[in-house]
Amino acid sequence: MTQNYQPTTNKLLAQINEDVLTLSFNRPDAMNALHPEMLAGVAQLVSQASADEGVCVVVLKGEGRAFSAGVDLKVLQDIEPAYGRIGDLFDEPAKQACSAIRNADIPVIASVHGACFTGALELALHCDFMFTTDATKFGDTHTRFGLRPTWGMSQTLAQAIGLRRARELSFTGRVVRGEEAERLGLVNNSVPTVAELDELVANRVRQISSNSRAGVAAMKDLYRMSQQGLAIEQALAKELETEYTEILDTAERLAEFR
Fold this sequence. Notes:
The chain has eleven helices and nine strands. The strands form two sheets. Strands 1-2-3-4-6-9 form a six-stranded mixed sheet, sandwiched between helices. It has a three-stranded mixed sheet with strand order 5-7-8. With 258 residues, the protein is α/β, with parallel strands linked by helices. α1 (36-50) packs parallel to α3 (88-103) and α5 packs across α6 (163-172).
C-alpha cells in the first residue's frame, strides 16, 4: 500500500495519484520563490517515494503562474554573503534535494511553466527529464547578483547543452524561452500551453508506469554511471558486470510475446 506523504511546510504540496507522487511548490503569490524548508521537503519526500514500491515516478511542478522564480532574495537579506556564496541556510537543504533527485530509484520529472530561474533551474537540471511551455522563461542570473553556483549549475547545465552554450547563458544571464530551451537541449520538449504540458507529462508517466520498476531503476543507475567520467572501455565493462538482483519480472514480461 502506498505510504502517506505529508510535507512539513505548507509551502510545498504533495499529492498521490495511483503510482505517481506530484510535489508542487506552493507560494504562487511569490512566483514560488524558494525557501529552505521547500528544498528540505523535496529531499524528504523524493527519498520516501524512492523507497516506496507503490510509487514509480515523481513529478515536480509549481502552483500558479510559475514553476519557480528561484531563491527568495528576501531571505538573503538576513544573510551576509561570503565570496559569492549564500551559505548553508540554503546550500545544505539544496544539496540534499539535488542528491535525493539524482539518487532516487525512480524518475523525477520537472514540469516547468511560467518561469524557472537560477536556483530553480539548478534544481530542475538534476531531474531526469524537463518539459515546458513555449512561453516559459529560463535563466541563470548568478552573475547579475555577484553570486557563484553551489547547487551544480556549472556541471549540469554544461552536460545538458554543451560547455560553450552554458558559458554564454551564465556569463550573460540572458533569458531564453521554451522553444529555444528545447533547441538548446535544456528541456526535452516544449509545447504551446500548460494544458498540453500536463498531457505530455501524463503520457510520459503512463509510459514509465507500464514498464518494469526495477528495470527503470537499473537504467537510472547506469545513466548515473555515465556521469562518472569513466573511460569508455571501463564503463562498458562496468555496465556488463553490474548485477541488478531486484529485476525479477523479466520472464513474466517476455511471456507476453510468446
